[in-house]
Amino acid sequence: MKPILQANAGIYILTWQDPPVRMRLDRFWENRDRKPSCELTIESTAPGMEGHLLHDSLTLTSARARASIARLLASKGPPELDWAVMLEQACLMVLEDYRKGEPIADLLAEPPSQDTEPYSIYPIMRKGVATLLYGAPGVGKGLVACALSAWRADGREACGMRPVLGNVLYMDWEASKRDVQERIWRIRNPYVAERGAQTVYYRFCAQVLSAELPEIQREVLEHEIDCIVIDSAAPACGHPQEDPAVTALFNGLRSLRRARGAMPVDALIIGHQPKNTPDKTPFGSTFWEARPRDVWWVNGVQTGSRQTVSLQHYKNNDGPKTPPFGLEFTFQENEIAVKRVDAGAEPELEAKLSLPNRIASVLRHSPMYPKELMEALGLKDDPALFRDLGRGKDRRFVKIVEGEHKGKWALIARPAASVPNQEES
User: Fold this and answer.
1) What are the residues whose beta carbons fall under 8 Å from the beta carbon of 263, sequence distance 6 or more?
2) What's the pLDDT score for residue 416?
3) What is the pLDDT of residues 367-389, one digit of tens each?
4) Which pairs from 107-111 meet CB under 8 Å and 24+ separation?
5) Model pTM?
6) pLDDT digits over 339-370, tens only?
7) With bands split at pLDDT 50, 70 and 90, how would you rate the model's confidence at 423?
8) d(CA 76, CA 71)
9) Nearest alpha carbon to residue 325 among 291, 349, 301, 347
10) Distance (Å, rounded) from C-alpha 157 to C-alpha 155?
């Protein structure tokens, strides 16, 4: 009798009804000859051999390995069980599925699905892809990640963020369970009276992600994880300046799914930028920019008990970038109050915005003549001001042609929408 095969993201479970035996094959690797091997776990509920029977490594194409394991199992159980046949069935079924991979799809058979909400957390993260938050040390990246984790698990709109309810796995290479837990609880306290249906799981990490992938996949399935937070990028991949290590990290994240054929879980990666340099790109390999579908540059200023963070949409693979915005974290006795603020709320943050965004930040308060804009922005007869006003004319900025403000420039008011407004670069 053939077993029932369940296959999901590199984990194979074969179940025989008679005899009642269960085999689990996972943690696959390939040797130099491309022969796949795995870890094999066998359990049974048959009388006289209940419980765990074996845990060993197995090369799927090796008849000698199967025969050796069959002899060992025969010494533990009733003689009527034909372990050689059962192991042969298991290896053939798993090997066929393992080599088959993902099925191809006909892209023109039907129109694309119209997902009403492409974001898992609007406007920061999109479903099923990786998002990178990067910035210098101490600017507030971890605070933003903890806030997004709390809001995702609660499924409640906060600070203009619209999360889809889901379980989060926070993978931490830098801090401790207590640090992350305290931040998340203090952020949640102001508006959540009790725990919701979803939660934030925590995992202390000391190895690179690729070494822990099989166990992470098991946890994704067991706990129905929707989003993974990587804190942070460099220790998670081991060699952030080497392309193969960074590629392995993203390939590993892409492999984590809750079901075969399902979209990968969302991933929020906290990265860094080179220290004491004007370079605004993420630190390390070019793949830190190339592989995420969305990249956000984070800056921050701390004043007393208040940390103000600005987020600028550095890259978007599927459309216009979201205009920059800020979050203000106020540390109080038992909570961290969070509110949305202008990305240029602090002079130091305003100076790091692109010129079109600096113009927008200033014009948000009142219309101005070009000379007034020059003074407000600290510019001296800079032609770039007129260039960017012209590029954004009638799309982002408007020149007033009549009335008391004639000759001034103003910011075009935009209605709230489900699709982000385009940012001028």
Assistant:
1) 127, 128, 257
2) 43
3) 999 999 999 888 888 889 999 99
4) none
5) 0.83
6) 999 888 888 888 888 888 888 888 888 999 99
7) very low
8) 9
9) 349
10) 7
* Sign of the dihedral through C-alpha 380, 385, 387, 393: negative
Average pLDDT over residues 181-192: 82
**pLDDT tens figures, 310-333:** 999 999 988 888 989 999 999 998
Average pLDDT, the chain: 89
Length of the chain: 425
| C-alpha dist (Å) from residue 381 to 96, 356, 370 | 70, 16, 10
- Six token digits for residue 9: 């993201």
